[in-house]
Amino acid sequence: MTALTAGSLTSAAQASPGQSVTTLRETNPISLASALTGRNVTVRSAAFSGAAVQAGLFADSGFGAFPTTGVALTSGSLIDADPTSDDDVDFTRSAVLGPNSSLTTTGDLGGAGDGPLTDLVGATTYDAATLTIDVVPQGRRLLLTYVLGSEEYATWAATGYGDAFAVWVDGTPCSFVPGSDTLVGTSTVNASVNSEYYVANFAPNDPGAVGQDTEMNAFTVPLTCTATVIPRQPTTVRISVADTRDGQLDSTALLQSDSLRSTQVPTAIGDFLCRLLPWLPWCPDGAAWNGPTAV
């Protein structure tokens, strides 16, 4: 399934006061990419693979000091099902909008997995939501801030049913537990493992006990992918989240607005050298570009 542009338009979903999600039924991948990009980064193109309800823009998520606006990707649905719609039969409620009303929110969409994510985690993936963005960073470092949340946390995170998530920059993963080479996922950040990066949002048999205003049973603190890149050269950022082993229980990545940013911008001397020696690694490649496109 691939959703690229608006289709079967509906209004933005609403849950707790002020919260909203606008999915790819109403917007497009370029809008998602534009919401993510911050300083010193230019978007060239963007593409999404998955169902339209699996990706979108969220606003005022309302849980603590975590990202309150940005882009959401989920293995379930970002919106509640419309009971009158034949298109909304594979899910019931939003995987992200609060309050937490269930420990087992599931959108089993019957979607395909993601090949690179399957290869990376060594487990079959299902219902993958994958956003690919081609950008041009001005500096030598590229960063992206994210939160990973999941319904797996209430029951299955410590039993091998850890859903999969990754961020790649030019094909190299960069979504690691801080200070390690361990990929962030529900089985690697939870109440038992790397718990300093974990925030619970449930009590046994009581999804609303903690009161964080999101459907997710638990989530990570904000974490940052950091990658070394070649300044002013096209760079591909790929973000994917998916179920593993089965299509049950939703996992969601929240990507903070303006957090896809670049640092360590070359100096004026570097600009001057590019005019003299355009083949230097930080110089533009001179390729023509006519603005961002949705693929």
Structure description:
This protein starts with 12 loop residues before the first strand and ends with a strand. The protein has one domain. It is built from 3 helices and 16 strands. The strands form 2 sheets. Strands 1, 2, 4, 5, 7, 10, 11, 12, 14 and 15 form a 10-stranded antiparallel sheet that branches. A 6-stranded mixed sheet has the order 9-8-13-6-3-16. With 295 residues, the protein is mainly beta. Residues 1-22 are annotated as: Disordered. Residues 1-16 have a biased composition (Low complexity).
Would you kindly provide a brief summary of this structure?
The protein has 295 residues and is mainly beta. It has helices spanning 29-36, 115-121, 268-276, and strands at residues 13-14, 20-23, 41-49, 55-59, 69-74, 125-137, 141-150, 164-169, 172-173, 198-200, 218-220, 223-228, 235-244, 251-256, 261-263, 293-294. Strands 1, 2, 4, 5, 7, 10, 11, 12, 14 and 15 form a ten-stranded antiparallel β-sheet that branches. Strands 9-8-13-6-3-16 form a six-stranded mixed β-sheet.
